[in-house]
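Exercise: predict the structure of this protein bound to S-adenosylmethionine.
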Amino acid sequence: MSMRFLLDNKEISLGDALRILPNLAIYFEVLKDKALECHIDDKKLIVVNDKSKIFIDIDRDLEYHKKFFYKHSIYKEPLAKAIGLKKGQLKPKVVDTTGGFLSDSLLLLSFGLDVSVCERNPLSAMLIQNAIDNTHVELDFSYGCITDLKLDADVAYYDPMYSHKNEKTSPKKHMKLFRDFIGVDEDSVSTAKFLIDNYKRVVIKRSVKAPFLIDLPSHSISGKSTRYDVYMAN
Ligand SMILES: C[S@@+](CC[C@H](N)C(=O)[O-])C[C@H]1O[C@@H](n2cnc3c(N)ncnc32)[C@H](O)[C@@H]1O
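Solution:
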């Protein structure tokens, strides 16, 4: 994807845009798709098309999880089980290698885990960076591809964007918008192999009926629509 960042009609680099973002109103334009725009509204970065909008609000989402886990056990969550979270045991450090719009990272954070996040798509990275700039919650975020960054953790969590060609139901509007600017992560098999070679435990998110992305996992944890395939180092 090629993008242009415009500040007072002068083009600036992605790095400068990321630095300036919390303080100045930037308008930038995604050249690939003229219908997609990004706005700063009260320091909040919002990606908009004619049908939907995306922004990340860390405080709002964490508050939602906090209320939910006030009445429900964290340890019964399929993702918590897949990560290997057990009552009375040390909590693992997790790297969310596919930040996206942070939904899974914030769920992991609400389990009380030490979470680091990376994201390689520049627009997603800007949404994440902007969300971090607008909260007091500490989240260790790196912009780039996990295979270059090689972040240290006990568990690597991987949720790439798959092709949805044969999907029967149409996606929610904000999901469609997200897919439009991310595209398909064509390197998901090689990245999964890299993770399995480099981390003690790897959790790959799949839709419940999808085949395994690569080899047979050590075990799987299934929820209603999602399956987590867990790969353990020998
Ligand atoms: C399906 S989305 C993830 C959604 C995310 N789990 C959430 O809850 O919002 C996949 C994201 O991972 C990013 N991604 C895919 N492969 C990556 C890699 N090797 N390194 C860093 N980011 C990657 C994509 O750019 C995309 O934003």
